[in-house]
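Bug: token stream looks shifted between consecutive jobs. Job 1:
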Amino acid sequence: MGILPDSGRKKEPDFVSEITELLLSYKDDLPFRTPDQLQISEILSRRDQRNTFYFNNVAQDWESIQKDVLDPAIYRKKILSYLPDSSSVIYDLGCGPGGLIPYLLTKSDQVIGVDSSPKMVEEAQVAFAGNSHVSLIHSQLENVASSATWSADAVVASMVLHHLSNPPAVIREIYKILKPGGVFCLVDLKKHNQEFMRDNFSDLWLGFDYSLLQDWLELSGFTITAHEEFDTDNVFKILIIQATKKED
């Protein structure tokens, strides 16, 4: 699979992401426009359904598919440095077939993987069958708080938000399931212009500017405590953000 080189030209506006962000910004401000709210919800729901269909189809080969564009090993070990040294419970949101879970088990007694794709959850269940330190939940990430069985010391969302129609809603859910003082580690692509990612990997967002993620996190109540940006061996750059839930 070819990756377009970074030509150094000014990036064109990411129209789809900008329209999605605009829809989200108005979704909760239309109290007297129920039909409009329903239409926006339907648009976002259809996007989520397409994503679930895609991930169900690639679940068995997802680990190898990712490596075609960006090897997860580049950032998985880095994630550990943004997590508490010892935790009772860590949630892995958008866990897929469970590739990150072995890393998280070095930091936590219990890891709970959550994914909206039933096939991804099935793959993870096979991989961790009989492991009492791993639990798996099939749930829409926008509703994860209602499915959470324990409060979390830490939550990781690694290369997940760019697949979601409503990232701010998921961030708010993460805030709910974290204990006071709990840590959220967000890993995602920095904003880019590689349009093939939409069709080939069901990306709804072409990465994110740090400032947008910062706004979403702070509006949800988080305090950003650390972040970094680093290059990979191709056109993509990766953002890692550590955010903390306020103490009571």
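Job 2, same session, no restart:
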Amino acid sequence: MTKRDFFRIVLRLFALYLLLLVIFNFIPSNISYLSYELQFTAVLLILGSSVLMILLFIILLRKSDMVIDVLKLNEGFDDDRIDFGNLGSLEIVKIALIFIGGFLLLDHLPEFLHYCYLGFKKEISASGLNPFEAPALSDFGDYFRWFISGVNLVVGYLILTNLGRLSRFIIKANQSQKNI
């Protein structure tokens, strides 16, 4: 595998991770924000940010060679090839899924545990939440973010526990797409 191929894979994996963050984190949390304050500027800002992130996803996915050239990622190495040994496409997809599932778990576990702590304290404590904690769990949007972080944890866990099936499905879908 050449350095250029390696950086293409890394950029495309980052693009996939960016898309997952937009779908499972950015859009749901901003929809919850719009549920209690619907203003034109907020809608415009959220739509603009979403379009910008999706454009970044498309650029990273379709124009990865241009990004490699602009950032000069393949310069400064002694050898032009990177040897991974006997790694096939199935193993590479498994490694990518491990990174994606791990990122989902690591990104959302602290937020989920924080909301669990606040929810538990709110229900158990006689005095409820103190003035510094109360704004973090006071409206529907906070419970929605708690739910979204839980969904992201479940998705990350399912990705990590079903690596074999998911990687075979992705390889099979890629091969069927090439045959079309």
